[in-house]
Specification:
By secondary structure, the protein is an all-alpha fold. Helices cover 70% and strands 0% of the residues.
């Protein structure tokens, strides 16, 4: 019988979780794309995936992972804002509630000039 909480967790994990589960989680994280999800739903899924895989990344790595799987329309919006750091990027996108279908139904210049660009500038 394990004497510590960590020992008990490890024993339960080895007994109940199949060995391929961790590989499946990492594969799901590596292939995660925004798709037709909103930015907030995609960001939450990314955070859950990072936590489940036990990945602790700094802002630069998390930013690259987040940015790389965003839809191209939203990537183009963020490219126009040079020097925006990762936490501000998340806040900006969540504040504007940018979704893929919104970006595809609106011109890129309309999104930049009408909402995102002006809110970051101020």
């Amino acid at each position: 019988m394990p004497q510590t909480w960590n020992a008990l967790k490890q024993r339960m994990k080895s007994h109940f979780i199949p060995p391929y589960y961790q590989c499946d989680l990492c594969f799901k994280l590596q292939t995660l794309k925004q798709g037709d999800k909103g930015v907030e739903a995609y960001y939450q899924e990314l955070l859950i995936g990072l936590a489940r895989c036990g990945v602790n990344e700094d802002d630069a790595d998390a930013s690259a992972c987040f940015f790389g799987a965003l839809n191209h329309d939203i990537q183009n919006i963020l490219i126009t804002k040079n020097g925006i750091n990762f936490p501000n990027c998340i806040i900006l996108l969540l504040r504007q509630n940018v979704k893929y279908r919104d970006a595809s139904n609106t011109s890129l210049s309309g999104l930049i000039m009408g909402g995102i660009y002006s809110s970051v500038r101020s």
